[in-house]
Amino acid sequence: MNSVCHITSIAHTVYISKHYKGQDWQNGASTTALVRLYENKSGKSQQDGRSFFTALEEGDPVAEETLESFLDHLTEGILTISYLLNPEAFIIGGGIFARADLLLPRIKAALVHKVQDERFLPKQLLAASLGNAAGRLGAVKHFLTQYPLQG
């Protein structure tokens, strides 16, 4: 029996600490982190997800570089989870995935490029259909399942 173990490298952890100001993976892989990284790299202020994607669509090279850095960070986390759990499907949510048309193909390509063994890639990589509300609704459903309303 072969075993495969590949967890994020120390060098990558140092990179994340430097560029994402010590944030954990979940916070560093958020829309807020993407926008803050773009603001830091571009010198612009008061940006949001919409303005970032507008700049990206207009060909802003700083926005493109920022997205590549962000996706590198995001896919490292996805791969770590995939190596540990080997899920059939990986569903990604959050407001940023209103642009799933732009993000999912790039994420899939980065995962294929980085993965040590394709057996560990999820068969499906999907954007949550509920967008930014997916996590909250899932938490409410879990709570109601655990603590049914009585009455």
What does this structure look like?
It is a single chain. The chain is 58% helix and 5% strand. It has helices at residues 10-19, 25-28, 31-42, 49-57, 61-85, 100-114, 134-146, and strands at residues 89-92, 124-127. The chain has a single domain, classed as ATPase, nucleotide binding domain (Nucleotidyltransferase, domain 5, 2-Layer Sandwich), CATH 3.30.420. Helix 6 (100-114) links the parallel strand 1 (89-92) and strand 2. With 151 residues, it is mostly helical.
Outline the secondary-structure elements.
Blueprint: H1 10-19, H2 25-28, H3 31-42, H4 49-57, H5 61-85, E1 89-92, H6 100-114, E2 124-127, H7 134-146
Helix pairs in contact: 3-5, 4-5, 5-6
Family: Belongs to the ROK (NagC/XylR) family.
Organism: Streptococcus danieliae
Protein name: ROK family protein
Compose a concise summary of this entry:
With 151 residues, this protein is mainly α. The chain has helices at 10-19, 25-28, 31-42, 49-57, 61-85, 100-114, 134-146; strands at residues 89-92, 124-127. The protein has 7 helices and 2 strands.
Characterize the biggest β-sheet.
Answer: 2 strands, parallel
Order of strands across the widest beta sheet? 1-2
Query: What percentage of amino acids are in beta strands?
Result: 5-15%
pLDDT < 50 stretches:
1-20
The structure class reads mainly alpha
> On the 0-100 scale, what is the average pLDDT?
83
Helix % is: 55-70%
**CA radius of gyration:** 17 Å
Total number of β-strand segments?
2
- Provide the CATH superfamily: ATPase, nucleotide binding domain
CATH fold call: Nucleotidyltransferase, domain 5
Class in CATH? Alpha Beta
H/I helix tally: 7
* Number of self-contained structural domains: 1
Distance between the termini: 54 Å
CATH architecture: 2-Layer Sandwich
Order of helices and strands: HHHHHEHEH
Gross geometry: globular
